[in-house]
């Protein structure tokens, strides 16, 4: 059974995720219909058809079952998050573990068959280590994941690979658990027309990015799908 929890909100003390800063749109429940993303400056991301979400959510859930990856739905993108601790070799930080190759390859194969969809592969780190070290580390990790998409035939018009260092945490870095959440690689899937707008905004932001204040839980709730959990059947009473 897929497990639903509330996504951790942006914290003023720890910054916000890449998604909130790029204007990918409000977080939504996994069954909500698509909408129009927030704009950055004068640019607004295109509306995504609900059928695209329906097809990709179903296919991603099938592809990632049994893995430690998570799926998060936004108004105009689907984010597949690979936790570093269960995805990369601890002795060789830029090398994928064998167990992670299959789910990433399955995601890449979905895009190989659909030339209308694109992906941004973004590496993230915790705040330990220097900025230069974290940038190199996250670039190497994003490149390791992105290479699988390249092998599936994706070119630069549908694939962006970027190391973000520790600039965009999901959680505060003052605990072991928080730092583990921040060490991740995100695969941001969207229709190609949305991808083009997001990449333009990302490379040349129309205005300086500011830290966003905490949002009311009633407004910012989302669904995070943790995959690989088996459905428990209630025990029957003995006769």
Give a short overview.
With 239 residues, the protein is of the alpha+beta class.
Q: Would you kindly provide a written description of the structure presented here, covering whatever features stand out?
A:
The chain is an alpha+beta fold and 239 residues long. The chain has a single domain, classed as OmpA-like domain (60s Ribosomal Protein L30, Chain: A). The chain has helices at residues 18-22, 50-64, 84-87, 98-112, 131-151, 176-182, 192-203, 217-220; strands spanning 3-5, 39-40, 43-44, 70-74, 77-83, 117-124, 159-163, 184-191, 224-226. A hairpin with a 2-residue loop joins strand 4 (70-74) and strand 5. The longest helix has 21 residues, at 131-151. It is globular.
H/E element order: EHEEHEEHHEHEHEHHE
Helix proportion range: 25-40%
Structural class: alpha+beta
Shape: globular
Instruction: Please state roughly what percent of the residues sit in beta strands, choosing from under 5%, 5-15%, 15-25%, 25-35%, 35-45% or over 45%.
Output: 15-25%
CATH top level assignment: Alpha Beta
How many strands, which pairing sense, and closed or not: the largest β-sheet?
Answer: 7 strands, mixed
Low-confidence stretches: 1-20, 29-42, 205-239
The domain tally reads 1
Oligomer: single chain
> What is the mean pLDDT?
76
What radius of gyration results from the CA coordinates? 18 Å
Tell me the number of strands. 9
User: If helices are DSSP runs of H or I spanning 4 or more residues, what is the number of helices?
Assistant: 8
Strands ordered across the widest β-sheet: 1-9-4-5-8-6-7
CATH architecture descriptor: 2-Layer Sandwich
Termini distance?
28 Å
CATH topology: 60s Ribosomal Protein L30, Chain: A
């Amino acid at each position: 059974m897929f497990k639903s929890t509330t996504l951790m909100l942006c914290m003023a003390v720890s910054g916000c995720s890449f998604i909130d800063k790029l204007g990918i749109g409000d977080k939504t429940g996994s069954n909500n219909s698509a909408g129009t993303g927030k704009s950055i400056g004068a640019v607004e991301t295109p509306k995504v058809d609900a059928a695209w979400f329906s097809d990709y959510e179903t296919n991603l859930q099938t592809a990632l079952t049994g893995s430690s990856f998570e799926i998060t739905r936004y108004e105009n993108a689907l984010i597949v998050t690979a936790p570093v601790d269960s995805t990369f070799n601890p002795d060789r930080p830029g090398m994928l573990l064998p167990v992670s190759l299959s789910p990433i390859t399955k995601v890449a194969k979905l895009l190989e068959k659909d030339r209308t969809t694109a992906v941004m592969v973004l590496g993230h780190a915790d705040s330990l280590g220097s900025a230069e070290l974290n940038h190199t580390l996250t670039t190497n990790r994003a490149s390791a994941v992105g290479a699988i998409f390249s092998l599936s035939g994706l070119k630069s018009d549908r694939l962006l690979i970027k190391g973000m260092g520790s600039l965009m945490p999901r959680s505060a870095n003052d605990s072991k658990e928080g730092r583990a959440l921040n060490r991740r690689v995100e695969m941001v899937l969207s229709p190609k027309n949305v991808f083009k707008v997001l990449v333009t905004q990302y490379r040349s932001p129309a205005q300086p990015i500011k830290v966003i204040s905490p949002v009311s839980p009633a407004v910012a709730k989302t669904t995070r799908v943790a995959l690989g959990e088996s459905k428990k059947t209630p025990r029957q009473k003995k006769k």
